[in-house]
């Protein structure tokens, strides 16, 4: 829907009152079956940040909370049914900690501008206007008025506009009323974009008269101010300084127009990928960058001796360095005349010290001395990327072991005496019971992970079918057996969080014979409570209602339930109550390292479940070694190939999988719904220099046979890094669980 800034009425408030914006979106959560995190990242991308965050700045917002910079992973069963294992949501930093999204770099530009601009917090926002500060009515301009600094936030009046709009900016300055650009041409706003133009902006001992280019940052090097401006490619920009600075003493680059007009020196240029630098002696140094080149610049605060106070920090103008260095810089520290940097590179990279508060004669990167030379007064060196030899194991060639993890339907002698009887005749849940006893999982302490029910009854011979109403969250599913006969599965749908179904029995039941219904439900998390006055988070999970057609009394069925072993009195105290579900292998602790796999059948997931055990659930386990060299950050994911098919390959297989790494559940994969295929597992969960235990469940939901087409380890990046190597998370290892069933 098109939305015009003209139709957006701003609430009336005091212009001296600070604004706060909470939980402003950076990413976009999608349901199972949705577009996936990469599309989410592009949808709420850098253009969104430029337009909507700068709208907030035009209100002189003092606090802006962004949700979120880093989302991470819903490991175990932490997630809610509105998502899936990944909580990347297209955030600025990817789930595997990568900073390759342009949105991250755009936020870096904006945050450094705000840090370098204390006058912003002293300004007063005016109402947005059309045709007052520009020569076009298609642009909205909000002036943040200060003394003397003014900020002009320019954006399209229509937020959905993709137009390229040319304009001139009319402003009052300490040098008089000016129309910018003064040296001819026009400014431009191209597509989904917004600009913040500066007037009478102080950079140390110099007051810039104006700049149409946006400010990344400025710092002081002794008595000299170093300023970094940027713009979009091919945009025309101008800045002006007092004429008493004199003409530029030197210029790096070409194609700049320089002219003295009255009491100002005006410099105009068209943005191009190559950098220009304008030197005004030892007073001012101005870097003119293409926006994408500015992404490679980093501002790092130096350590401060002692506490800086709880609420206010001092100016950063003399306590920071500006460095051009590529992929990522983490920390900076000055010791004497040596600058120590830590960071990451993914290719051979030029390192250039743009500004430092004191003289620097040598640079160390990740504790290694960098050979440097002085170019145009700046210390420059090369960071050489050394590609390591990293060979990840081929999972298809490993020794796998297999265990049927649904013995409840395969073993006719299976005993469920230790299961939890469903005997509660009342519930604290807001949904009133429609069954003789509660079948809500949480009433019995099972709050996440898969759920198993066993309903036992003695047949009269009149039973013909079962009506079943269940709820497990969006994209959940279930499978049902009568004794060891498979009846059906609800495969799940992304937009359905419950299902009601009538299942016809395949043949008449024998009077006087005891039958057991086994119902496996994939519990995909409890609801969140977005409206403050709702009870949505109390929505029950499990069986909500049932009818055994041919019997008048629902009490004919006696129910038992199990979920994670022990429920709220869980066995694994290191990983907590939401790491496990109801599968036999989970209840026995076989997903933990050290499980007695040698007693099991040798079989890999690439062979699939045995023919006589599908539909059903199989548990596959193996071990592999990693040897990632020190000095490298290598985010690793376990990736399912989205090509598993049934039978002759005519259609995709319908199955659900859980992924356990060293006992930690780090993936729930639903082949026929998706969208997630790649499951990042961080170092510390993975042992990068030792043995790792990998277990995979495969829940085949129909009678079509299939083999897992592909499962592999993938290095998402190989970064030469100065990061602090994380310790291995020590979780409980396998030991026989007393009372497990």
Automatic annotation (TrEMBL):
UniProt domain Beta-galactosidase: residue ranges: 120-297
Q: What is its EC number?
A: 3.2.1.23
Under the GO molecular function aspect, what terms does this record hold?
A: beta-galactosidase activity; carbohydrate binding
Q: Does the keyword Membrane apply?
A: yes
Q: Which Pfam families match?
A: BetaGal_ABD2, BetaGal_dom2, BetaGal_dom3, Glyco_hydro_35
The superkingdom of the source organism is Eukaryota
Could you mention a single GO BP entry for this protein?
lactose catabolic process
Q: Which InterPro entries does this chain map to?
A: Betagal_dom2 (IPR018954), Betagal_dom2_sf (IPR037110), BetaGal_dom3 (IPR025972), BetaGal_dom3_sf (IPR036833), BetaGal_jelly_roll_dom (IPR025300), Galactose-bd-like_sf (IPR008979), GH (IPR017853), Gly_Hdrlase_35_cat (IPR031330)
Say which family it is in: Belongs to the glycosyl hydrolase 35 family.
**Could you tell me which PANTHER family the record lists for this protein?**
BETA-GALACTOSIDASE RELATED (PTHR23421)
Name this protein carries in UniProt: beta-galactosidase
